[in-house]
C-alpha cells in the first residue's frame, strides 16, 4: 500500500514534527509535540520515538519502512552525529542517527535542516526543475541549502549552506549567537527584525508589516530597511553561487508580497549585471519543506546524497 512512502521527522528547537511522506512531498498522518530541548539528548530521542510511533500507529508500518530526519545543525550527516546544536541541550557529538535507529528498529538517515528543506523544495516544491538553486529560510535564524549543477552541495562535513553567518554589518552590527558582529541572521532574521520592529514602536513584526501595507510612513521605512538587509545577504549568495532561482521559506516568507519588490530592487542594485534576473520565490511547501526533504533522503538517496553511506 505504501510504496514510495517514508517516515519523516523534522526536529526543531521548539517542535518535533513527524509524518508519513511520499515522493511527491504529500504529508500524511502528521504528529507534532514539543521538543524537550533543555532535558538532554536522550529525552529528545524519546520524544522523536513517541512522535514516530504515533505516526505508525495511525498510518501503519509497512515492510521496508525507512526514517529520514532533519534537525538544526551542525550535524555530520555521514557519521550520523549531532556536532554542536546550540538550541538543543546534549546535542554535542551525540550519535543521533544510531540512537533513533535503536529506539525504533528502523534504518535512519539524518541531515542538517537547511539542506534538507532545500532538498524538499527541490524535489517537491518551488525548486523543481532548477539545476542551480538556493533555499533560504528566514525565521529564528537564517539558514539555507544549496543545489549547484544539479546536486545538493554539501561541503567537507555536510555543513555547506550556513549562509546566516555571512557578515553584512561587521562594524557596529548586532552580535550573532556565534559571537561575531553583524552576521546576516543577527541583522535580518525573523527574530532580529522583530527586535528592530519593537524598538521602532511596533507591537511585533507582523504589526509593522501590516502598517507598511497600509501605507504608514514609519512602517514603510522599516520594511524598506528590512528588505535592504535581506538583499545584502542575497547579493553575496548570488555572487558566490550564480543561482537561477532563490526560494525563501520561514515566517518572513509570508511578507514577500510586501518585501519582494524592494528585495529585488536592492539585490539588482548590488550585483554585477550578468547575475541579474534571479527568480526570488516563496517556498511552495511552507512549514513542510523539511518533512518533504527528510522523506526524500531515504526515498531518493541518489538525489540527496553524495554521503549515501550515511544510513544506520
Ligand atoms: Zn554568526
Tell me what you see in this structure.
The protein has 312 residues and is α/β, with parallel strands linked by helices. It folds into two domains: 5-116 and 288-304, Nucleotidyltransferase, domain 5; 129-283, Nucleotidyltransferase, domain 5. Helices cover 38% and strands 21% of the residues. The protein has ten helices and 13 strands. The strands form three sheets. Strands 3-2-1-4-8 form a five-stranded mixed β-sheet, with helices on both faces. Strands 11-10-9-12-13 form a five-stranded mixed β-sheet, sandwiched between helices. A hairpin with a 4-residue loop joins strand 5 and strand 6 (81-84). The relative contact order is 0.17. The structure holds zinc ion (ZN). Zinc ion binds at residues 165, 176, 178, 180, 183. Zinc ion binds next to loops.
Amino acid at each position: 500500500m505504501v510504496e514510495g512512502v517514508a517516515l519523516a521527522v523534522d526536529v526543531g528547537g521548539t517542535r518535533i514534527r513527524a509524518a508519513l511522506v511520499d515522493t511527491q512531498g504529500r504529508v500524511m498522518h502528521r504528529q507534532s509535540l514539543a521538543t524537550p530541548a533543555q532535558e538532554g539528548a536522550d529525552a529528545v530521542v524519546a520524544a522523536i520515538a513517541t512522535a514516530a510511533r504515533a505516526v505508525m500507529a495511525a498510518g501503519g508500518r509497512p515492510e521496508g519502512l525507512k526514517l529520514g530526519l532533519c534537525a538544526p545543525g551542525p550535524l555530520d550527516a555521514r557519521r550520523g552525529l549531532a556536532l554542536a546544536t546550540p538550541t538543543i541541550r546534549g546535542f554535542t557529538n551525540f550519535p543521533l542517527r544510531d540512537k533513533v535507529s535503536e529506539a525504533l528498529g528502523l534504518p535512519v538517515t539524518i541531515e542538517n535542516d537547511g539542506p534538507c528543506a532545500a532538498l524538499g523544495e527541490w524535489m517537491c516544491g518551488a525548486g523543481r526543475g532548477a539545476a542551480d538553486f538556493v533555499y533560504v529560510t528566514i525565521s529564528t535564524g537564517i539558514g539555507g541549502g544549496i543545489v549547484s549543477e544539479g546536486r545538493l552541495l554539501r561541503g567537507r562535513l555536510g555543513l555547506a549552506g550556513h549562509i546566516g553567518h555571512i557578515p553584512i554589518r561587521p562594524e557596529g552590527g548586532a552580535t550573532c549567537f556565534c559571537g561575531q558582529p553583524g552576521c546576516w541572521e543577527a541583522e535580518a532574521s525573523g527574530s532580529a527584525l522583530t527586535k528592530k520592529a519593537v524598538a521602532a514602536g511596533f507591537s511585533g513584526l507582523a504589526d509593522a508589516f501590516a502598517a507598511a501595507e497600509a501605507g504608514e510612513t514609519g512602517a514603510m521605512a522599516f520594511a524598506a530597511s528590512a528588505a535592504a538587509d535581506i538583499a545584502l545577504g542575497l547579493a553575496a549568495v548570488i555572487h558566490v553561487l550564480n543561482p537561477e532561482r532563490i526560494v525563501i521559506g520561514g515566517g518572513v516568507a509570508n511578507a514577500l508580497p510586501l518585501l519582494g519588490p524592494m528585495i529585488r530592487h536592492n539585490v539588482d542594485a548590488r550585483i554585477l549585471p550578468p547575475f541579474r534576473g534571479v527568480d526570488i520565490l516563496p517556498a511552495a511547501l511552507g512549514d513542510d519543506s523539511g518533512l518533504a526533504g527528510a522523506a526524500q533522503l531515504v526515498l531518493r538517496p541518489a538525489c540527496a546524497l553524495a554521503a549515501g553511506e550515511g544510513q544506520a
